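Render Methyltransferase type 11 domain-containing protein in 3D.
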Amino acid sequence: IGSCFPSSHLWTCKKYQDPTAKGASGRGWRHARARHHHTLPPLPELAKERFQAPVPAYYCNLQLGASMEPAVRAAAASCSSYPSLHPPRALVARRLGRSSGLSLPARRVAVAAAAIALDPFQETKTEQNDTSETEVFACPVCYEPLIRKGPPGMNLPAIYRSGFKCSKCNKSFTSKDVFLDLTVTSGMKEYSELKPARTELFRSPLVSYLYERGWRQNFNRSGFPGRDEEFQMAQDYFQSVAGGILVDVSCGSGLFSRKFASSGAYSSVIALDFSENMLRQCYDYIKQEETPMNTNLALVRADISRLPFASCSIDAIHAGAAIHCWPSPSNAIAEISRVLKPGGVFVATTFLSTPTNSGLFSIDALKPLRQIVGPVNSSYNFFTEGELEDLCRSCGLVNYSSKVQRSFIMFSGQKP
């Protein structure tokens, strides 16, 4: 109900006019639909002088005639001296009795308006206490849904202004930085742990800064086709899940996250990485590229082996040039399989195992020794195409397919 009433003496309500609208049923609604152009009698203007508080405009999708205004204000004014800050709704209803000359549906609307008008701070308190259960985010400890307090939306401003809490273990998560930290270690003050060197390397501010300034471009020497072509190849795989939620895991500086978000092909894009500095770099690129801050793009810090999403909640997952850096690719793809919806698609790129990057361990007879010597000899895990297919199938993904160009491979699997 607006704080400024229109000059017309007619009132209309979309619920009343549309017989198919939700809640448009029952005797009262039928009566209202039949009389939605009823002219309401005016009340004395003295009530308007006694009560001047506006009625918040968000309350109902209504347009009320000027003759309704005195009735609402009269009821509110007559209750303004009530001892409690929130007089009972029944008291307001009595002030708007049959003597007001309003029909029953109109009195119901006026009662609600007067009740809102008596608490001018209700709109602010409602916004501040906007608490809801998120549809996607889950606790990385117990995988229970997170309760969100703050403005809705899967965009940077909304996520930054929101607080999250596990509905089971009560662990809290905040976005004090430019990203939402949903790691198990989030909020810990004393405990700290280090990941393998290949993971810690990308947490470096220097590497994060250089990643799109020459580092990633060197991948074309191994057959990587380049950002635009890789993006289009991934989009082809994701055609069946267009319009859904996409998570770009190990997103780095957001090289592909930003393209997925700006494409408009997905309802939400979540750029996820374990590196704090990579996520900060992604945020800087978003500002530089003048990407609208209300774009459905969220920055989340998380562990690929402990994804903070509810099971069967994600439509698409992309991992660009990442699997060779993961501490445990099998655990990671098992997690990806868990969070994908039935029919969800996983697409990834990586380097195939070659004599250049794997040495003698690329020879089939010597592959078993890689588990013993590999961690000492190399910082990365490189696999053959057969190993990648076996890994996807063993984690429950079907419809495996791949495209190979020299040591570059893009492969895909689908959740049955």
